[in-house]
Every structure is written in C-alpha cells, then in structure tokens.
Amino acid sequence: MQAVILSGGEGTRLRPLTSTMPKPSVPLVNRPMISYMVDWLAGHGVRDIVMSIGFLANGLRAALDEGGHAGVTIRYVEEAKPLGTAGAVKHAEQFLDERFLVLNGDVLTGVDITAEIAQHEATGARATLALVPVDDPTAYGLVLTGENNRIEAFLEKPAAEDVPPNPRINAGAYVLERDVLEMIEPDENRSFEHDVFPHLSSDEIYAYDASGYWLDLGTPERYMTATRDLLDGRLESWLTERLVTTGRVIDTGVDVSGCKIESPVVIADGCALGDRSRIGVYSVLGHGCEIGENCELERAVLQRGCSLGDGVTVTNAIIGPGAQIGAGAVIASGSVIGEGATVAADACVPADCRIEAGAEFTHADGVTA
Ligand code: GDD
Ligand code: MG
What we know:
Layout: E1 2-7, E2 27-28, E3 31-32, H1 33-43, E4 48-53, H2 57-67, E5 73-78, H3 84-91, E6 99-104, E7 107-109, H4 113-123, E8 127-133, E9 141-145, E10 151-156, E11 168-177, H5 192-196, E12 205-209, E13 214-216, H6 220-231, H7 240-246, E14 248-250, E15 260-261, E16 265-267, E17 272-273, E18 278-279, E19 283-285, E20 290-291, E21 296-302, E22 307-308, E23 313-319, E24 324-325, E25 330-331, E26 336-337, E27 342-343, E28 348-349, E29 354-355, E30 360-363, E31 366-368
Parallel strand pairs: 1-4, 1-6, 4-5, 8-12, 14-16, 15-18, 16-19, 17-20, 18-21, 19-21, 20-22, 21-23, 22-24, 23-25, 23-26, 24-27, 25-28, 26-29, 27-30
Antiparallel strand pairs: 2-3, 6-11, 7-13, 8-11, 9-10, 30-31
The structure holds guanosine-5'-diphosphate-alpha-D-mannose (GDD) and magnesium ion (MG).
C-alpha cells in the first residue's frame, strides 16, 4: 500500500518552533514528529510514501534522512505555492496507484489502518475516512454518519451549536480510490474537507470507526500532551521497550551521577548535567544540552544544543534548539522559546509566553530583538 503524507502546512499554531523548521521535522521526544507517522505506516506494511511538502522543504528532507527508515521509500513532491490538502494530492497524482492512503502529517496515532483498508475494500467505497471521538470538535472536521457507517455530512470547523452528542471527527487518515482525484482541478488550491468530501454521495464515502491513540499535534499544549503520552508508553514507539524496563531513556555516555532524575525522562547523547540539578518527570533533553548546577526541570522539553546556566527553573515549557537561558532565569508553564533565542540571567519568562527564534528576552515584561 502507498501513502501520501500531507506536510505542507505552515504550522502557525506551533510558532515559534515552526518559524525555523517545518512542523513535521520539529523534534518530538528527540525524533522528527513525522518519523512517528512513518514508523506507524511501516508497521502496517506501507513501503511507498509520497511526502507532500512546501514550506521549508529542505529541512524536512534532512530530518527524515537522518532518521533512516529501513525498507521504506520516501519521495518528495513540492508545491511552489500551497495547493490545499486536495490540491496537494492532485499535484502528486502521477506517482499514485489506483488505491492509496492520505494522511494529515501533523497527527500522532496508532489507529488500525489495516482494518480501515479492509473495510474500504469490503464496502467498495471511493473514500473511507477514519473517525475518532473528541470532546470538542469545533477545531476539527465533524463527521455525521448514517446507516452502515455511510457519511451523511462533513462539517469542517463546525459551530458549537451544530455539534451533536458523542461527536466524531475526521482523524485525517483516508483510503482513497484514484478516481476521486478527477473531482479536483489541477494547480488550484482545493481542500478535501471543503471541496471534495461534502460532494461525494453517501454511498461513496464511508466512516471507519477508529479506536486507539490519536492526537493532533498542532499546538504547544498538544505537543506537551504527546510528549507525556509517549513517555508513559500510551503509544507504541521507539521508546517503549526501554521505558518498560527502566522508566527512562538515557544515552549511555551521559553522566547523571550528580543530579536527581525522576522517571520517566529521556536524555540524548552529548548532554552535560550540573551537580544537584533535578531532571523531573516528563522532561526530554535533546542532543548536546548543557544544564548548569542546581537547575529545576519538570515537564521541560529542551531541543538539541540548549544551554541553561546555574539555578534555572523550567516548568512545562518547550525550549527550541540552541536557545540559551541565563543563570537564575525562570521559565514558567506553557512558554515556548524559539531556536537560538536568549533569555537573560534572572529574567522571568511568564506563563504561556512565546519568544521568537533568535530574540533576546531580558525582563519579565519585554523582548528586545
Ligand atoms: N502539501 C500540503 N499543501 N499540505 C497541506 C496544505 C497544503 O496546502 N495545507 C495543509 N496541509 C497539511 C498540513 O501540514 C497538515 O499535516 C494537514 O495537511 C492538515 O492541515 P491542518 O492545517 O493541520 O488542518 P487542521 O488540523 O486545521 O484540520 C485537519 O485535520 C483535522 C485532524 O487533525 C482537517 O483535515 C480536519 O478535518 C481534521 O479533523
Ligand atoms: Mg492539524
């Protein structure tokens, strides 16, 4: 089976992490986000992946090459301008088989796509969409179904008053017949959600009732949820085996003897940890981070090459690659610090603050470029 992964969105809600790298290459527990999707697909026998990309395309290619996904061929199809979800697949048409999968690339999931394909074949559908339950569907595509899982209505980003009890949403995992692409004009911006699915008749488009782990990674809050879930082993991943045996994944070369480690944590190679620092639960340190003495980290995600001076406190925050945090600084919950940014010594970064890539943060109340 073949799969197209849609990875051309700008990821605006994940800024500043996505200001300097495309969303799919943003590291999630030290691997590019998209590599979890490639692993999941490979686990279901997908060997041929077409990556539909636009924004900052080269970064994505480099990040995936580094991951080395054995036995899977990945081809890249670039757009000069964003063509929308359906326009992007149309743009890749020459590479596509008679039947293929289309995946939203910003989702972390373990749903049973093999069962979805089997259902698609059994019903003879032109399109089968995996659906998952969520509490609030207003940020997603709400799907209403009738008899035998036929899809009767597709409401993208519905108003709260249109939401029925026990709503299910489009999980962004489709099985499509190639002839669906005939509905899409080439080189135009078109979306499956607005321009294709609502125009298929109910005997052509079916819902697959998915169960298992599913999360849209589009916001910093959900990124942190995904980090915790991976460290808790709620989704099978490259971490699972080591987490089960030791509750932590710490590269062998890292000396943790002077500090306190509270599992589960993940610490990559090349990290240097100062004495009396506490690496608290759900923290993730990327390659080559330097942590001073007496630091307090909890639910702290530090991407590669960050440096923290002595006595820094980081709680439930994401720090982009190569950022430098001065001694005594406090990074409060929900903050996201962009690549290469600096935070001055003793500064307080307030809750939910965003510091742009390369910016210099000096006080609690201001950022100077
Ligand atoms: N190549 C390409 N070109 N990819 C694109 C483009 C484009 O112009 N626009 C969006 N994408 C990719 C994004 O990178 C993302 O992986 C996927 O298509 C979905 O786009 P988002 O912008 O993340 O959409 P959303 O999260 O608001 O809503 C979509 O996903 C929900 C599930 O997470 C919809 O499909 C909803 O119906 C769905 O419920
Ligand atoms: Mg999304």
